[in-house]
Specification:
Elements: H1 11-26, H2 37-53, H3 58-77, E1 79-82, E2 92-95, E3 100-102, H4 104-113, E4 125-127, H5 129-140, H6 147-150, H7 153-173, H8 183-186, E5 191-193
Antiparallel strand pairs: 1-2, 2-3, 3-4, 4-5
C-alpha cells in the first residue's frame, strides 16, 4: 500500500470548513467513517433551504462537503486526488486498487440539489472502456432506491464500494491481484459510467 500523502491544496481547507459547518448545524462531529455519512446527508438536506435563499453559497458548500466525502473515500478505498487546475470540474478521486475515478464535488452538488440539474461537475463513475459494460451490468443489478436516497452521500459511497469490489474481483480473476494504479495511469482517461 502506498504511503499516506496529504491531499493537495485547497482540499484541506474545504474539509476543515465542512467539519465546522456540520458541527455548527448539527452539533455533531464527522469522523471520516462511512457510518457518519447519514449526518453529512442530513446536513445536505438542511443546506437546500440555505441555497434556495442564498444561491451564491452553493459552490462553497458543495466544495466543502465534496472534499470531505472525497477524503473519506480516498482513505477508505485507497486512492488519491487529482487537482490539475483550480476548476472543480477537473478534480477527481482516483482509486489505486482499480481503474475507477469520480468527481466528489459533483457528488456533493447532486446531494445538495437532489439531482443532476445544477452547474456543478458531473458525478458519474468513470472506468476504462473495457470495464464499462461489466460494471454497468453489476450496478443495474442492485435493488432500486427511493429517489430521495439515490443522490445521497451514503448511497454514493455504497455504489463506489460495490464498483471497487467488482472491478477488483475481475483483476484477481485475471491474475492482476497486485496491480496498483498511479497518476500516470489516469492521464489517458476512460469512459463515463452513470451511477
Amino acid at each position: 500500500m502506498p504511503d499516506y500523502q496529504p491531499p493537495p491544496e485547497p482540499i484541506p481547507d474545504y474539509v476543515t470548513a465542512c467539519l465546522e459547518y456540520v458541527r455548527r448545524a448539527l452539533h455533531v462531529e464527522l469522523d471520516f467513517t462511512p457510518e457518519t455519512l447519514p449526518l453529512l446527508d442530513h446536513y445536505a438536506t438542511l443546506s437546500r433551504e440555505t441555497i434556495r435563499e442564498r444561491p451564491e453559497l452553493a459552490p462553497l458548500i458543495a466544495r466543502a462537503a465534496g472534499s470531505y466525502f472525497g477524503e473519506l473515500v480516498r482513505a477508505r478505498l485507497t486512492g488519491f486526488w487529482r487537482v490539475p487546475t483550480a476548476n472543480v470540474h477537473d478534480w477527481s478521486i482516483c482509486s489505486t486498487a482499480v481503474f475507477l475515478w469520480f468527481n466528489p464535488i459533483g457528488i456533493a452538488y447532486d446531494a445538495l440539489f437532489s439531482g443532476t440539474e445544477h452547474d456543478g461537475p458531473r458525478s458519474m463513475l468513470r472506468v476504462a472502456p473495457e470495464e464499462h459494460d461489466f460494471l454497468e451490468q453489476r450496478l443495474t443489478a442492485l435493488p432500486p432506491l427511493p429517489e430521495d436516497e439515490y443522490f445521497s452521500f451514503s448511497t454514493r459511497f455504497e455504489v463506489i464500494e460495490i464498483a471497487t469490489e467488482a472491478l477488483h474481483s475481475r483483476l484477481v480473476a485475471s491474475g492482476y491481484e497486485e496491480t496498483e494504479f498511479s497518476a500516470e495511469d489516469y492521464e489517458a482517461g476512460g469512459r463515463q459510467l452513470d451511477s
